[in-house]
UniProtKB/TrEMBL annotation:
Keyword terms of this UniProt record: Methyltransferase, Transferase
Keyword RNA-binding attributed: no
InterPro entries tied to this protein: SAM-dependent_MTases_sf
One function term, GO molecular function aspect: methyltransferase activity
Protein name: SAM-dependent methyltransferase
A single BP term in Gene Ontology: methylation
Length: 152
C-alpha cells in the first residue's frame, strides 16, 4: 500500500526517471522508489497515469494505491462527508471541519497541547467522545491513563 498526497504528486510530476519518497504518511522514515516516465509513475503498489497524478496534485485529499487500484480516502453518506486530509500526521475532515488544528501546527502537536493542558497522568480516567483517528486517546493511554471511548 502506498499513500499519495498532493505534495507527493507534485514532487513526482517535477521529477524525471526515478525519485525516492516516503509513501506511508511518514509512519516510518523509509523511502520507496518511484519510476517516472512520460505517461505514468510506477510505485511499489502499482502504477498511476501522469494525467491522474495531475488531478491528485490539485486535490486536498489522500489517495491509497494498493494492488494497482487507486482509492480516494473519503466517504460520503447521509450523515456527511468524511475525508483524510494530507497533513503529517493526517487528520480527518468532517463536512469541511478539521478535527485538529492544522494552521501553524500539525495534528500531533495539537494533540500534545490538549493533553498537556489538562495534565493527564498515570491513573487518570479519560473519556474520549469523538475518537477520529485516536491521537488524543493514544497519547492519554501512553501517559498511563485509563481511556474510555464512545463513538457514534
Amino acid at each position: 500500500m502506498n499513500y499519495i498526497t498532493p505534495e507527493l504528486a507534485k514532487k513526482i510530476l517535477n521529477s524525471k526517471g526515478e525519485i525516492y519518497l516516503n509513501l506511508d504518511l511518514n509512519k516510518t522514515n523509509k523511502k520507496f522508489k518511484v519510476i517516472v516516465n512520460e505517461d505514468k509513475a510506477i510505485f511499489p503498489s502499482g502504477e498511476i497515469e501522469i494525467k491522474i497524478l495531475k488531478k491528485i496534485a490539485k486535490d486536498n485529499a489522500v489517495y491509497l494505491l494498493d494492488n494497482n487500484r487507486l482509492y480516494k480516502l473519503a466517504i460520503a453518506d447521509e450523515s456527511g462527508y468524511y475525508k483524510l486530509v494530507p497533513t503529517i500526521p493526517p487528520t480527518i475532515e468532517i463536512n469541511g471541519i478539521r478535527m485538529h488544528r492544522t494552521k501553524g501546527i500539525n495534528p500531533y502537536e495539537d494533540t500534545l497541547n490538549k493533553v498537556n493542558s489538562i495534565n493527564i497522568k498515570k491513573g487518570d480516567v479519560v473519556l474520549d467522545t469523538c475518537m477520529g483517528l485516536g491521537y488524543t486517546a493514544i497519547e492519554a493511554y501512553r501517559r498511563g491513563a485509563k481511556v474510555i471511548t464512545i463513538e457514534k
